[in-house]
Specification:
Blueprint (H helix, E strand, L loop, with lengths): L2 E3 L3 E3 L3 E5 L2 E3 L2 E3 L16 E3 L3 E3 L3 E5 L2 E3 L2 E3 L18 E2 L3 E3 L3 E5 L2 E3 L2 E3 L16 E2 L3 E3 L3 E5 L2 E3 L2 E3 L18 E2 L3 E3 L3 E5 L2 E3 L2 E3 L10 E2 L3 E3 L6 E5 L2 E2 L3 E3 L3 E3 L2 E2 L3 E2 L4 E2 L13 E2 L5 E5 L7 E4 L54 E5 L2 E7 L5 E7 L8 E8 L4 E7 L8 E6 L1
Parallel strand pairs: 1-6, 2-7, 3-8, 4-9, 5-10, 6-11, 7-12, 8-13, 9-14, 10-15, 11-16, 12-17, 13-18, 14-19, 15-20, 16-21, 17-22, 18-23, 19-24, 20-25, 21-26, 22-27, 23-28, 24-29, 25-30, 27-32, 28-33, 29-34, 34-35
Antiparallel strand pairs: 30-31, 36-37, 38-39, 39-42, 40-41, 40-43
Amino acid sequence: MNLAHGGAINNDSGVLRVSGCSIIGNQAKGLGRGYVDTGPALNGSSAAGGGMYISGGEVYLVRTLLGSNCVEGGDGGSGEMGHLAGSGGDALGAAICLSGGSLTITNCAVVGNYAIAGSAPVASRYIGYPGTGYGGGLYAQAGSLIACNSTLSDNSAFAGVTGGGGFGGGPSTGGYSFGGALAIANATGILANCTITQNGAFGGTNVTRPGSGFGGGIAITYYGTGTVSLVNTILAGNLVGGTNFLLSDVYGIPQSLGHNLVGITSNAASFVSSDIIGQDPKLGPLQYNGGATPTHALLVGSPAIDAGAPASTPFDQRDQPRTIDDTGVVNRNGSDGTDIGAVEANPFLALQSITMASDSVLVSFPTMSSKSYGLLYKSGLEYTQWLNVAGLQPGTGGIITATNTGPATTNTGFYRVYAR
């Protein structure tokens, strides 16, 4: 099989550490085939790792954004009448394909990547087979994967399309895809304090009936021997498509280590009593809520707040403190106050940072989604009146920044934040 791999990085040995980087807009694309006027047509080639391809060694990603990467299988060729049309190539891991070695992801965001399998063309006699899409975010074919304090969101895996016209045999459906965020084949994976939401796996179209997607969030492929374990992880709001579009978060049987929040488990088992099943996690939109990478903040009333097991790290994805026990929320299922997911909610109002930019002062602070916030300023302690220098801003559940324009040229200044 011809294979295009590693749109930005290809690692086969040694130790690679990537920290504070953006791996954005890269592509690995398989070779498409044209018309063959003698004999059967050629198959499109597969492609792996639109952003990164890892076949060996140790790779560590820290505070890194992997976004808008694409892996695309080549389309099959069309052939002379009476012969087989070419099949589409597979698409393996839009952001990362792991086929060996180890990958550790910490405080990262894997967002907006897409795997597109190759299509089989219209045929005069024998129809080729469409390619399969594996892992709109990550595809762990082999090796070991650890992800901690990371967000996988808005990734998609698309199966190949099957053409029509053949009458001598071939597929009766469109192609298949596995794992909108993560597909596991023969690898072992552990996900701790991750948020996996708004991903999708979509089947390819066919003149008879479309194919299917499996595991809008996570899929353990049916032909592999891989495993994935989950702890303190949100897996909800993911989608599969084929004949219909349905919420589907996991396909296969992951191993729960407890304290997960999972939306739809119709195709999965092995969850335990400390897991929260079938509830809305109440997540904010994907945006920068503080830190180096985008996240989904926990909104007020989220069942993920104070429902997690003790965390393995003292910080969340944004490098904000974890654990923060919300005294207004009863700890759930034996939790110590740790939140489930990549973000630790902080209900306690305090100034996070004060920085200068040109002639303005930027003041950052944690917020709750149920409140609005204002900024007060006075230039010296001798003044008794605080001036309201920024209009009310709605809380997001994350860290927001209020701006005081002008006073950066002065020597001193004092600030207060208030909530309503």
